Amino acid sequence: MGIKLYYSNLIENLSDKFISEISVFADPFNPPVVIIPNPYLKKWLQLKMSFKNGISPNIDFNILDNGLWKIIGYLFGPNDFILLKEDRLALLIYSLIAGESKELQPLTRYLVHGAVDGKPSAKKAWQLSTRLSRYFLSYELYREHMTESWLSGACIYGTEMEKAQSYLYHELFKEKGLRDRLLPGAYTVPQLWKKKSGKIRPVKNRQANTHQVPEIFFFGKSQLTPFHVKMLYGMGAIADLSIFQVNPCAEFWEDATTPAEDRWKRLRSTEVISRNDGDDLADAEFENKLLKLWGKTARENLKLFSLLEEKASEEYEFISEWLYGDQNREPLTALEHLQSQILFRKSLIEGGRISQDKSIQIISCPDIFREVEGVYNSILCNLEHDPELNMNEIAVMTPDIDRYSSVIKSVFSR
Questions:
Q1: What would the DSSP string read from start to end of 148-207?
Q2: pTM of the model
Q3: 36 strand-pairing partners
Q4: DSSP annotation of 216
Q5: CA-CA distance, 236 to 205, in Å (whole number)?
Q6: How far, in Å, CA of 43 to CA of 39, rounded?
Q7: Strand pairing of 240-246 and 2-8?
């Protein structure tokens, strides 16, 4: 049992390795479990497998929470528990949120504010319950120490708002609390893992395992939480895991800082450099600006995986491998030059000016309507001039889909 971790800056390299690894499992009655971040990646992987092998075999694809829930069942045996999702949790919070407890006073003031009759607004109560359900699920993933403190009846910061949230969380999940009374057996993934993981005993070989545990693959999850890494560490002791992770840089770059972190260093640093335009903290000349600006999430992921490797390698087999593919060849296009600079953590000014081509383009538009029209026309132009280009090879990304959705429908429905 153990963990194999594969890195690459190109998802195509990861998919090729994934297909070669998963193709060796031929048992149709015990298909490998694959955890993916969204259903679109499932479709893409199935197409890649079909093109390469002529068939996409029996594979159990799962979105993150449902897949982890299923894996817990494989590892510890079938159970009758219910996955407590955001909508059910919001209903439980809604039944508590308008209570008369003094801890809930800051929430009550918000619910009655502006009400003519002085009664809590049902609409506000539901909106707040939905928001708090997301917060509670997030806290369990990122702030385990805080939720454990709340369950014991204690607060960490002692603020008025924390006391209100702590009271709700405690009333929900304490022994014989509201969850146990209304939805007995309903747990979030972190809660069920905590309940079950105490039974983990390292398994040296597959025959020694009590349950028939399939091979487990994690593919393309862009952001993991401390809980997920803790769960992977526990799973590696009793199952075989293969993790395929996109990493934009092959060099050590956990020390790359964001502009916000640089500002914090300026405040804390006693070594200040005087310049004509004021005092400043010098940036590292070698640092790649795009890693600084856009690499924070990937860097935090890398730190978590480094901790996982350090801890897990002491107890069972842990293999980490970088998949280069043909990236050692000389870059030809502007996009390949940019990818190479990020991959090897080179400054964007190293190597001189790159000749411009169409591999990467930055186009300024006066408004979002013209933006979407430009994307629409670009897609039509590329399809017309490249007969080998398929629609499933085109992706349109936006930072705010709610803002753009109506414009996209208007332009693309022509």
A1: HHHHTT--SS--HHHHHHHHHHHHHHSTTSHHHHHSTTEE-HHHHHHHHGGG----SSGG
A2: 0.77
A3: 63
A4: E
A5: 12
A6: 7
A7: parallel
Report the alpha-carbon distance of residue 221 to residue 298 in Å, rounded. 11
Q: Are 135 and 147 spatial neighbours (Cβ–Cβ below 8 Å)?
A: no
| Core vs surface per residue 394-407: b (16+ CB within 10 A) or e | eeeeeeeeeebeeb
d(CA 136, CA 187): 13
Using only C-alpha atoms, what is the Rg of the chain?
25
pLDDT(240) > 80: yes
38 φ/ψ angles, rounded to the nearest 5 degrees = -160, 160
Number of H helices, E strands in the chain: 17, 10
- Maximum distance among all Cα pairs of the chain, rounded to whole angstroms: 73
DSSP string, 84-122: --HHHHHHHHHHHHT---GGGHHHHHHHHTT-TTSSPPH
DSSP 3-state of 218 = strand
Q: In what order do the strands lie in the sheet with 317-322?
A: 60-63, 33-36, 216-219, 240-246, 2-8, 317-322
Number of residues written out for the chain: 414
Spell out the residues 6+ positions from residue 158 whose beta carbon is closer than 8 angstroms to its own: none
CA distance to 68, 78, 281, 307, per residue, from 261 (Å): 34, 46, 11, 21
Query: Among candidates 271, 269, 202, which has minimal Cα distance to 234?
Result: 202
Q: Is 366 left (phi over 0), alpha (psi -120 to 50) or beta?
A: alpha
pLDDT tens digits, 256-297: 565 555 554 544 444 445 555 444 444 445 567 777 777 777
Q: Which amino acid is at 4?
A: K
